[in-house]
Structures are given as C-alpha cells and as structure tokens.
C-alpha cells in the first residue's frame, strides 16, 4: 500500500466534553492535521472502495494508509488512556481503519440503518472519527433511548435495550425507511458533534449515535465531493496476548 505524508498540527486545539446524563467524555480536536492534502489525495486517487462487511455502515469504505493510522494512534495513545481510564495492563490495537463515504440512498436502506446504533458493547472500544472534506455535511448525533433512558449500550444492558426496542416495534411497527435526522418517538437527540473539516473526535463505541444525514447533501460516493471521513476503531486487550 502506498504510504502518505501526514503529521499532527502544532496548532491543534483540544477539548474534552462531558455529554449526556451518563456524563460520557467526548474528545474534540480541531485543526488536527497539519496538512490533509496527501490524506485526501490518496482517498481520491488510490483507495479502493466497497461495502463494509463488518458493520451496517450505509455506504462505502476503503483502507486507510497505515502511516496515517500509526501517526494518529501515537498522538492519541496517552490521551485515550487518561480520558477513558483505560487499565494500564491493557494495550491498544486498531481493529478497523477506513475511509468512509455515505453512499446509500434512503430507498436502499436496511432497518438497522434507520435508527441510532452502537459500534460495540465492549467497555473500552473507542471510535475515532476525522472529518476531512470541506462542505456543509451532517453532524454526528448522540442519542438517548427514551423508554430505558440508556445512552450507552454495554453488554450488561443489551438484553434490556433489545427487549424494549422489540416491544415498541410490536406495537408501532418497524422504523421508517429513512435516515435519522433528529429526535423521534423512540430516541432523543441530546448532543450534536458538529461537522468541521479537519476536526477529529473520539467517543466510546457503546454510545448510541448516528450521522444526521440529509440525503440531498450527504449521500455522495465521490471522495472528492462527498462526506469523506477517516474512521479508526480501537480496542484494548491484555498485554500478555494483545489479541
């Protein structure tokens, strides 16, 4: 794989927000990259896109350059351990690293793509999201499940959450085949992570979240003009095995 030149800007601006009733830390770093030209150029000219078989992502994904992923994780490593109180006997590992483009029209959505979702129930699983292209693209919304009050779906509450969701569907029917755009009868939008080019954010993968997709603006498979993001998902494993 072709490697690229990427470095972190010395002028990057860090803030840690505590959001929701669960008081979950969300990391926001503005002006993260010194120069995005190579990173975006690779996405447009060399990356090979296709569906992501590991998730319900409604679009296309392609592998990120390893040099970019290494640089990002090296920069964030100590911060992630501190903010999310990761036990020191664990080691960090990237389990997926991909460019992402929303590309599925609403007519092609599956039911699981029409409601807020989680990336993992694992306690230390983190999502790193780097907004890349210029443009008025959609924010990332964080949601609370109204019936249960849950914001984080961890393994110990997964059954409760699923039972409640299935009971609602039995009475009211399945979700409308449309992208999530805000609060509805089942989910309350309590926080928006605003899309800004070269903004990097980190949040736990167990948070209920969704892009607040405007199909007319955000559904675009062209990496030159679409809602291009870099997504790195990390988890933490015992240092003895690191697997």
Question: In terms of topology, how is this protein built?
Answer:
Layout: E1 13-19, E2 24-30, H1 37-45, E3 59-63, H2 66-83, E4 90-102, E5 126-131, E6 140-145, H3 158-172, E7 187-193, E8 200-204, E9 209-211, H4 215-218, E10 229-238
Antiparallel strand pairs: 1-2, 2-8, 3-4, 4-10, 5-8, 5-10, 6-7, 6-9
Could you describe the 3D structure shown?
The protein is an alpha+beta fold. The chain has one domain: Jelly Rolls (Sandwich), CATH 2.60.120. The strands form two sheets. Strands 1-2-8-5-10-4-3 form a seven-stranded antiparallel beta sheet, with helices on one face. Strands 7-6-9 form a three-stranded antiparallel beta sheet, with no helix packed on it. A hairpin with a 4-residue loop joins strand 1 and strand 2. The chain is globular, with a radius of gyration of 18 Å. 35% of the residues are buried. The mean pLDDT is 96.
